Amino acid sequence: VEECLAACPGVSDVAVTAIADAEWGDSLLALVVGQADLELLHAWSRQHLPAARRPRRFRCVDRLPRNPLGKLERAVLRRLAAEAA
Fold first, then answer.
1. What is the residue-averaged pLDDT of the chain?
2. Taking a C-beta distance cutoff of 8 angstroms, is the pair 67, 37 a contact?
3. Residue 13 φ/ψ, nearest 5 degrees
4. CATH numbers and ranges of domains, the chain
5. Which of the 8 DSSP states describes residue 63?
6. Predicted confidence (pLDDT) per residue in 10-29, tens digit
7. Burial environment of residue 3 by CB neighbours within 10 A (0 to 12, 13 to 18, 19 or more)
8. Is the Cβ–Cβ distance between 84 and 29 less than 8 Å?
9. How large is the C-alpha radius of gyration of the chain?
């Protein structure tokens, strides 16, 4: 999912994580860095991803949390996702 969304025009970085969803149990939230707007992100995901793998929500952020080795800090991503919910 991240690789597909990273190919969207205007996306410079992206991370996807699960969030609690009252209707769906868990759903996907994409944290996106770049100039792509929400309409484009939703359209891109509809065109390139099967329904079960599409993020239901997108959140634009200035940067993604990474450790000194450049790896995503998944625990911080989950906190950001919880704040966005």
1. 92
2. no
3. -160, 150
4. 2-78 (3.30.300.30)
5. -
6. 999 999 998 887 776 788 99
7. exposed
8. yes
9. 12
